[in-house]
Amino acid sequence: MEKDCVFCEIIRGVRPADFLYQDDSLVIFKDIHPHAPIHWLVVPRRHIRSINDLSDQDGDIISQMILKAKEVAKDHAIAESGYKLLFNVERGGGQFIFHLHLHLLGGW
Ligand code: 5GP
Ligand code: ZN
């Protein structure tokens, strides 16, 4: 947990969010400013700043994030129509919240 991190606060339950899924490793909640009919954020519970900060030991969490995104897309019937999975990396890559997250956008 990192002080002053918005997503750590959401994970701790001190900031509200609309959760779709939670387990021991990750959570999924709705983006507060959706850029698509469905815009969810897949977020590891552990505070990792960005893709740049991943180590060779972090393969598991990245695969869990992608596989869970695939699963919730199917469960919410947006898999067939198609969706985007997106990591913004650091400021130049459009990252504003420096706690790793995977955008799931779809429902068009
Ligand atoms: P980034 O640009 O860092 O990849 O994406 C951060 C995303 O987090 C943005 O799409 C933004 O709308 C979303 N966001 C920022 N603050 C909050 C918040 O307090 N709650 C929720 N649910 N989403 C947030
Ligand atoms: Zn954090």
What's the structural blueprint in terms of helices and strands?
Layout (H helix, E strand, L loop, with lengths): L5 H7 L6 E4 L3 E5 L7 E7 L14 H17 L7 E4 L15 E5 L2
Antiparallel strand pairs: 1-2, 2-3, 3-5, 4-5
Bound molecules: guanosine-5'-monophosphate and zinc ion (ZN).
Summarize the structure.
The chain has 2 helices and 5 strands; from the N terminus they run αβββαββ. It has 108 residues and is α+β, with helices and mostly antiparallel strands.
Descriptive report:
The chain has helices at residues 6-12, 59-75, and strands at residues 19-22, 26-30, 38-44, 83-86, 102-106. Strand 1 (19-22) and strand 2 (26-30) form a beta hairpin. The longest helix is centred in the middle third of the chain and has 17 residues, at 59-75. It has 108 residues and is an alpha+beta fold. The chain has a 5-stranded antiparallel β-sheet with strand order 1-2-3-5-4, covered by helices on one side. It has a single domain, classed as HIT family, subunit A (2-Layer Sandwich), CATH 3.30.428.10. It has 2 helices and 5 strands; from the N terminus they run H-E-E-E-H-E-E. The structure holds guanosine-5'-monophosphate and zinc ion. The site of guanosine-5'-monophosphate has 13 residues, from strand 2. The site of zinc ion has 6 residues, from helix 1.
